[in-house]
User: Fold these one by one.
Assistant:
Number 1:
Amino acid sequence: NFNINNDIRSLCRQGHLKEALSILNNNAHYNSIDSSTYVSLLQVCIQNKSNALPYAKLIHAHIHLKGFMFNKSVGNTLVNVYAKCGSLAEAQKVFEKMPYRDVCSWSIMISAYSTHGLPKEALELFHQMRKIGPKPNHFTFASILPVCASLGCLEEGMQIHEEIKGLGFERDQFVGNALVDFYAKCGNLEDACKVFDKMPRRDKVSWTILIRVYFQKGCIREALELFGKMPQRD
RNA sequence: CGUGCAUAGUGG
């Protein structure tokens, strides 16, 4: 039983979804599959997101049957799988029916709306989270900032920035990049640079964001100059 | 009962 889980997980690690699933379907150890194994199976679906939706549904059925929806990791991963495999409707359904929605669940769903080109819905959900959900964290903020940018919500984004500062999330790489991009997309190049300059670490994404804005504005000189300062440019 | 493993975020 230890081994059946390890076997499935190792097949998952190698990306062999069908082999892993055949164990899940045929085996007498059916009752011994644990929550972490279900998560691994779902992860492989995400890796093969272009054609894994039917497999995700199959795994979902198992999970439902075994009562593993009560496991947070499993539930959250399931929402993510549906979103990533292209079924926003299913993701939504699972999200709404989950026994517990933690900050991770909310963040996944917000990001799902955003990814599917529904920023208004993403922002609405964020507002609902404010009212009835857990406190947003750095993951949530990194997901909501692009939403504010795409909706042109400069004011709200700036308020969120203040909140981020207060919580010390400005140092998070993803949040920092999202902030630079937010200001850049809102046409506030000054604040974009301010955040960029304050960053404790700048990665490829940070540089790309800023260089791109300069190009888009037609400031070729500045763009090239920045590019020249970039540490690891390839 | 204990242990190990397993879930979300930024630009193009």
Number 2:
Amino acid sequence: MDRSLPLVTAPTAAPVRRDAARNREALLAAANALIAEGGVAALTMDAVACRAGVGKGTLFRRFGTREGLMATLLDESERRWQEAAMSGPPPLGPGAPARDRLLAFAGSRLEEHVRQDALIRAAGTTWGDNQSVIGFHVLHVRHLLLEAGITGDATYPATVLVTMVSPPVLRQQLDAARLTPSRVLTGWTDLLDRLLPAD
Amino acid sequence: MDRSLPLVTAPTAAPVRRDAARNREALLAAANALIAEGGVAALTMDAVACRAGVGKGTLFRRFGTREGLMATLLDESERRWQEAAMSGPPPLGPGAPARDRLLAFAGSRLEEHVRQDALIRAAGTTWGDNQSVIGFHVLHVRHLLLEAGITGDATYPATVLVTMVSPPVLRQQLDAARLTPSRVLTGWTDLLDRLLPAD
DNA sequence: GGTCGAAACGGACCGCGGTCCGCTTCTATT
DNA sequence: AATAGAAGCGGACCGCGGTCCGTTTCGACC
């Protein structure tokens, strides 16, 4: 682990009561199963509650809204990604040159966002505008930019680079503009090299 | 008008029948009135139909979904913006130096997106991922970048600059990162000057 | 083990988005 | 003007997200 940053916060405080914790896990398992079987559209709140063998009120008490439930599912994989970025193998994890890690960052986020696209869309702004996730990515990239020797303010360039592989921007480029993933990464790399000092 | 680009396409083909056209206008007027009175939350499909004096089926036939209705409302103001950018007064319209027009573009989009934020959020991906709008902006900025003498590929930098004043990115910067609008524009200007050749 | 307050549970209930289909209205054609 | 048939219309109906509140369960403390 190359530094300490707050990981994505637990969106719902861990329940204290035993039954509450058990139900929480049952609900998440049911939600994952439903998505695996029938896609995001199959994730109805009634179905989740029924499959988990609990009442609907319990489900809503735990996750607030359908989008909140989705955000929790996304947080799970985000947590795994963040661990990989902080203490996993290079080039995404520590141990590789900063520029290589930056490229790995872009490729990895692109892959993740394409893989989870349906769920991210359905979660709407609840997840997409998540401050802690974006904030983590910006700090991560900013750290690597500084390590790579960027001159001047690093926060805005970091924001730019993170933004350019964010879900809405990728959708625009991949779907609307009909670009291939590798073309997107080429553009991103060019942008990175314009922002870094010429070596 | 400095060039010809396709304006935002009519989202719903103009009705041929007289009564259909009349109802369409009545529905849009009702929708605008409801939003003016009670915000986006007051825009229920039943209320729009009732206020316009037509049946619910007619409303859905015309606009497809609630989001589709919102997208139509947004298209109206977008059309006005595009006219201002193509044939309005400088610096947004033609007649000013390219760099000034680019700054005017950023400021104008920021203002527009902040003003319409609630509606844009509520419209979801129906409007936000709108290819024709984003495509228009990218072409506009790309044109100005070339006029300003950018070297190399201009499309990706144009996409970057457009993206950085898009609604989700602005929300992240203004709400989550607590930046002021002028700070955002400063960052944008810096980015622009990094992308343009040093003069 | 008994007691008690708080936390969690569950399912009836509500409002809204969206669909469906029989009825009405318009306009092209003669 | 009459006609025909396509386009438009309307509102009953449905499913799902979300709420509410009386009931149940947990576990801390005695």
